[in-house]
Amino acid sequence: MDIWKLFSLDGKVALVTGGAGLVGSSVSEALAEAGAVVIIASRDIKKCQAKAGELRKQGLRVRAEQLDITDERSVSDFKGRIVSEWGRIDILANNAVSRPMKRFDSPIEDWESSMKVNSTGLFLCTRIFISQMMKQNQGNIINISSIYGMVGPDFRIYDGTDMDMPPDYAFHKGGLINFTRYLATRFAPHIRVNCISLGGLFADQPTKFVESYNRRVPLGRMAKGDDLKGAVVFLASDASAYVTGHNLVVDGGWTAW
Ligand SMILES: NC(=O)c1ccc[n+]([C@@H]2O[C@H](COP(=O)([O-])OP(=O)(O)OC[C@H]3O[C@@H](n4cnc5c(N)ncnc54)[C@H](O)[C@@H]3O)[C@@H](O)[C@H]2O)c1
Which of 37, 38, 94, 232 has its CA 20 to 30 A from that of 78? Predict the structure, then answer.
């Protein structure tokens, strides 16, 4: 098949949880630019509407919806609305994240609240959409993980800043990479499940931190939104038809040392 046809997402229906956030915006944009109808969903409907409006101005097919992945009823009703309108869901990008825990010694309630979204909520959303994908005999899931699901943080990069990397993040991002493999083998051959482990995105962090981070990266800089678009469309499309259970690392070489 023609290579551009392999990469095309024409006619596909995609859901991006947390799709108006920093990373989610690039995931949503990439899927829509490749031809999919993209549903951007999070708890913050206003933010989703603003992002959807911005992408529609570029001629992309994008819809905003409200969704709380921790609420089984919310996810289930939401799936019902998607299926009654579009008849199917082809791509689920598990991107939403909640980061209530700030430090190693934050209150344990913050750990629990993190797990409720990042672990239980992600599982709930995945299970509900997989049931629909199994009915279709077809589906594609992309989990967004992080370099901190693969390696421990180099805490020296936070020296001289008030930034930190809390422990819950390593726990759920590491789990997500192996949960990807579990889903891939469990739901093959109908559903493909892959993961993207991303390095830090530049978002106007303190200069001292950015300089330390950049020194640590073989490619010499933090990620920008466009850096992940190719990986997203590759995994979402037939260009990766024989790829499942994979962890695609997009980190400028951070984990290659
Ligand atoms: N920003 C980075 O540098 C970076 C690096 C590596 C990986 N990642 C990963 O990228 C993904 C997105 O991170 P981000 O930095 O863009 O975060 P963000 O805070 O900008 O966006 C997170 C989104 O998740 C949504 N969300 C939170 N709780 C929700 C819930 N209960 N139901 C539905 N939506 C909910 C929020 O409304 C928000 O839109 C995460 O999985 C994160 O681990 C980010």
Answer: 232
Which two three-digit tokens encode residue 134? 């199994």
Closest approach atom of ligand 1 to CA 94: 41
Amino acid 47 reads: K
Which residues have any ligand 1 atom within 6 Å of their CB? 17-18, 20-24, 42-44, 67-70, 95-98, 117, 121, 144, 146, 198, 200-201
Give CATH for domain 3-250.
Answer: 3.40.50.720
Q: How far is it, in rounded angstroms, from Cα 174 to Cα 178? A: 7
The full set of domain ranges for the chain reads 3-250
Report which protein residue has its CA nearest ligand 1's atom 30: 68
State which ligand 1 atom lies nearest to the alpha carbon of 22.
Answer: 16
Q: What spacing in Å lies between the alpha carbon of 161 and ligand 1's midpoint?
A: 22
Per-residue pLDDT of the chain (257 residues; tens, 9 = 90+): 899 999 999 999 999 999 999 999 999 999 999 999 999 999 999 999 999 999 999 999 999 999 999 999 999 999 999 999 999 999 999 999 999 999 999 999 999 999 999 999 999 999 999 999 999 999 999 999 999 999 999 999 999 999 999 999 999 999 999 999 999 999 999 999 999 999 999 999 999 999 999 999 999 999 999 999 999 999 999 999 999 999 999 999 999 99
Encoding tokens for residue 131? 């049931």
Predicted TM-score (pTM) of this structure: 0.98
Reading the block at residue 59, the tokens are: 């001629």
